[in-house]
Write a structure and sequence with these properties.
It is built from 5 helices and 6 strands; from the N terminus they run βαβαααβαβββ. The protein is of the alpha+beta class and 192 residues long. Strand 5 and strand 6 form a beta hairpin. It is globular and about 55 Å long.
């Protein structure tokens, strides 16, 4: 697609710089500085990724791009009755497969128990999820991504659920919030 390496701006969401909700002037400055860096490095493009449709409309109004692509990239692996080895074998990336196996061994050694929560049981796990998420943000020196005020809205969304990893004493060790639609599970937020 490009004739050489591009200048790539990773996610511009809150934890990486807080540009959603920024003024037109700030967004214009971000694009202008990125384009200047691309010219300085003789890169054929500045790639700004991970923008939701509303942000794409705002950014392109401020600084029209030469091209705008909408990509969907997700890891997919069928989960069936054939067991864990078959599931792991279908993970396409060797690195992702090795990381999954490592995390599975660690969880098993700690005696973690996995289960899902949805529907009317979901609100009871949200405070603990928020605490995990907030602690992780503090360790990383960044603001928390999910406020207590936004989490109670989750159970009203069709297909909302939580995947929980619990310690033997029942305490929450980690969690994912996500949504099930048809036969697909979309993971949304992590509470490590």
């Amino acid at each position: 697609m490009f004739s050489g390496p591009v200048v790539y701006a990773p996610s511009l969401y809150n934890q990486y710089g807080g540009l959603p909700g920024a003024s037109d002037l700030v967004l214009a400055e971000a694009v202008d500085q990125g384009r200047q860096l691309a010219r300085q490095w003789s890169a054929p493009a500045l790639l700004v990724s991970n923008l939701a449709p509303a942000e794409v409309a705002q950014w392109t109004r401020i600084r029209p791009p030469d091209a705008c692509l909408r990509l969907f990239n997700a890891h997919r692996a069928l989960i069936g009755a054939s067991g864990l080895p078959d599931f792991v074998g279908r993970i396409p990336s060797e690195q992702a497969r090795a990381e999954f196996q490592h995390q599975h061994r660690c969880g098993k050694a700690l005696g973690l128990r996995l289960h899902t929560v949805s529907g009317s049981d979901l609100p009871s796990v949200l405070p603990d999820f928020h605490t995990l998420s907030e602690r992780q943000a503090q360790r990383e020196g960044r603001p928390a991504l999910y406020s207590r005020a936004m989490l109670p809205c989750l159970p009203r969304i069709p297909g909302a659920l939580a995947l929980l990893a619990e310690k033997p004493d029942g305490a929450l060790a980690g969690a994912f919030l996500g949504f099930r639609h048809g036969t697909t599970l979309y993971l949304w937020a992590e509470g490590p």
